[in-house]
Design a protein that fits this description.
alpha+beta, about 10% helix, about 230 residues
Length: about 230
């Protein structure tokens, strides 16, 4: 899913629904069927109008070396032009990926970025400051998902290219918006949306196919909370 998977095609685009591994391609590059839903005027008007921030140039960062405290719960709250939503990270399933996302969020990596891919009824994908669908932090982590992994509504997983090993992650993530994305167990499952799924659905409603939403959805900031 960097681009998460060119839905259903495992092209060199992100697998899954444009879920690519932060570097370029798709997220669930498997034989998944994409269902397009009709965008409602009400949902669209609840998202603020505005221009997308300038795309940033690709960069190379060092992978974090410190693990998160396994006794604590970590959440990421995304403030967007469509509202806010919170992801509770799953350290048991993806400890390296969770630590990476926390480090990136604390450093402002996701601030002033966009959801560059929205496939209605399938996934919304972001986490690429270059806005190209091929960007990432310059490093990757690997947390292979279990063979029985399911990508159902509210699940948050990481995009990767079709050539990368299962569970490889950069910075691009996707949120499943359909009942079951039907993806193969190739994408690291890093958590689930525990608050603000209505915001995710507003973003999903802006989808027009497999690509950018009908108007920019901007992430202004991401707040890390530990408890």
């Amino acid at each position: 899913m960097r681009r998460v998977v060119t839905l259903l095609l495992v092209l060199s685009c992100l697998v899954v629904a444009g879920c690519g591994s932060g570097d370029d391609e798709s997220a669930g590059g498997s034989d998944t069927t994409t269902t397009t839903t009709t965008t409602t005027t009400a949902a669209v008007t609840e998202c603020a109008d505005g221009d997308a921030p300038d795309a940033r140039e690709a960069e190379t960062r060092e992978a974090p070396t410190e693990s998160l405290d396994p006794a604590k719960t970590y959440t990421l709250t995304f403030d967007t032009s469509c509202g806010s939503f919170t992801i509770t990270l799953d350290q048991e399933s993806a400890p390296k990926t969770a630590a990476s996302l926390v480090a990136l969020a604390q450093d402002g990596y996701f601030d002033d970025t966009i959801f560059h891919r929205v496939v209605p009824g399938f996934v919304i994908q972001g986490g690429d400051p270059t806005q190209s669908g091929a960007g990432g932090p310059g490093y990757s982590t690997v947390d292979a998902p279990p063979s029985d992994a399911k990508y159902t509504k509210d699940v948050v997983a990481m995009a990767k290219t079709g050539l990368e090993a299962a569970g490889t992650s950069g910075s691009q993530f996707f949120v499943v918006t359909g009942a079951d994305a039907g993806l193969s167990p190739d994408y690291a499952i890093v958590g689930e949306v525990t608050e603000g799924m209505d915001t995710v659905e507003r973003i999903d409603a802006l989808g027009t196919g497999d690509g950018p939403p009908s108007k920019p959805v901007v992430v202004s900031s991401v707040t890390v909370t530990e408890s």
